[in-house]
Amino acid sequence: MRIHIATDHAGLDMSKQLIDDLTGDGHAVTDHGPSSYEPLDDYPSFCINAARAVVRDQRAGETALGVVFGGSGNGEQIAANKVEGVRAALVWNTSTAELAREHNDANVIAIGARQHDYAEVLGFIRSFIATPFTGEERHARRIAQLAEYETTGAIEGHEIH
Ligand SMILES: O=C(CO)[C@H](O)[C@H](O)COP(=O)(O)O
């Protein structure tokens, strides 16, 4: 699978380890930065670039997921979700990693590098990658509503204030 990864200064050490381990798992990992430690760097562009690459690859028919992380993962999730077609989930345990795929068909996982040790983070990402979307109608319906709102500003049959 193609994995697009991005972080900021808060996750840079972890990012390097993750790239090695995910590559070792057989994935094709693309690093969207940062390339060096800058304590005042800004996560949005790194995360948006990773998120855009995930959508581009998926729309081209490739199997791809994204990994974005920083100190909390919050801003990184917010940044990724600004990209049309992205469903980025903030994950903090194995259950949320699995549910992000099973119920939300999330295509980007966001994690707080300052909230977990490395083994936990790697485990969350491996669970996320290994878990398929269930495809159940109710989940597909809700995801379609999000996409409809994202592209039209409306959800047919539902009032949007
Ligand atoms: O998690 C983050 C955003 O949600 C950032 O990694 C975090 O805010 C960086 O903090 P600082 O600049 O104090 O190192």
TrEMBL record:
It comes from Arenivirga flava. Gene3D superfamilies: Sugar-phosphate isomerase, RpiB/LacA/LacB (3.40.1400.10). One of its GO terms (biological process) is pentose-phosphate shunt, non-oxidative branch. GO terms for molecular function: ribose-5-phosphate isomerase activity. InterPro entries: Rib-5-P_Isoase_Actino, RpiB_LacA_LacB, RpiB_LacA_LacB_sf. D-ribulose 5-phosphate binds at residues 8-9, 71-75, 104, 114, 138, 142. It is an enzyme of class 5 (isomerase). Belongs to the LacAB/RpiB family. This is Ribose-5-phosphate isomerase B. Homodimer.
